[in-house]
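In the lab's daily routine, each protein ends up as an entry in a very long ledger. A line of letters takes care of the sequence, but it says nothing directly about the fold. The fold becomes a row of whole numbers, each drawn from a learned catalogue of backbone shapes. The protein below has been through that process, and both of its lines are reproduced in full:
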Amino acid sequence: MLDINLIREQPEVVREALIKRNMDPAVVDQLQELDAKRRSLLVQVESLKAERNAVSKEIGRMKDPAERQAKIEQMRVVGEQIAALDEQVRQVEADLQGLVATIPNLPADQTPVGKDEHENMVLRQEGEPRSFDFSPKPHWDLGPELGIINFDQGTKITGSRFYVLSGAGARLQRALIAWMLDLHIRQGYTEQYTPFMVRSDTLFASGQLPKFADNLYHDAEEDFWMVPTAEVPLTGLHMGDVLDEASLPRRYTAYTPCFRREKMSAGRDVRGIKRGHQFDKVEMYIFCKPEDGLKELEKMLADAEQVCKDLGLAYRVVQLCTGDLGFNAKITYDIEVWAPGVQEWLEVSSVSWVGDFQARRANIKYKPAGGGKNQLVHTLNGSGLALPRTMIAVMETYQQADGSIQVPDVLRPWMGGIDVIRKDE
């Protein structure tokens, strides 16, 4: 959430940022109007309260019963006016906060200006896509032929866009999760096992509500929401906390299943396991001091890249432009891996510096070691990595001419002796 003082004192900065994000800057005028109305109402109510306090003291000194009763009656009317104004203030404040909550974060100066994903910048490519002496198959053929992915069973159990991983397929997915967590622990992150359901206030704190309500799964009776990413509960770990400066940065990693209402359209995106309403992901999350934000961003990006390198996958780093930037982010780098069967670069990670945007929503601060006013922390998040597309890249990159799949070296300790996935293994 943006600081209301920024909107009040530097509205042109917010307008310019919204224009860069291809949004209507007129919302800034609405915010200013609500803020002016709020302050006007506060002046009125404070004036009436001061009058009531002064008259209350007079009433205590009055000797004439009739005069005292007249003043009491006058203050009763004033009290009703104050109550009505207080209610107006509450409503205007709710409207103001509700509107502020819909404004995205301001892009950092380092974020390139662009209209949409077509203007994102490919910064570099690491590794070369594997060359084949046969035509590589897409995973939606490889998986069923090996008996490790069953789309029909997923549809039978739940519906379209669901699937079942079986045998070595399920084990490969589990191996990826366990290995990634262990790698991130070695990189300096502390593993967290968090709830897979959260309350509304946790989703608001992380920036998911109110904007993305239509994309989330909600149990209205209990007010439990299925997490769309571990970023949500990891943000919630320190809601309302004041952390010691010496404890920063705090780096966390967590595995969660993720649940999102995907808006499916006809085409190749809907085939296979690339998109689904449920998927697994290992997340990295950092709480740090403001001056360390960019340094921690570079670390997190390097840590996510290490996953791709160790898996032997060709990948590229893409910097998102302002028109494609996520709601919470100031800067975002996407990591895309090459999947030779589907012939696509698949996004497996978005690494973002969020600044104090989430911390303001969640009221997460730190106490400076030298004393002084508590300060908002900065937060960062990144996938390390998202599993379905990583699975796609591994399966398709390591496939053999006979239809089998070699297991990458780093995953073999978690595969129970399976070095090559063959049919019925």
Observations:
- The mean pLDDT is 95.
- The CA atoms of residues 235 and 299 lie 19 Å apart.
- Residues 26-61 form the longest helix (36 residues).
- The first strand starts at residue 121 and ends at 126.
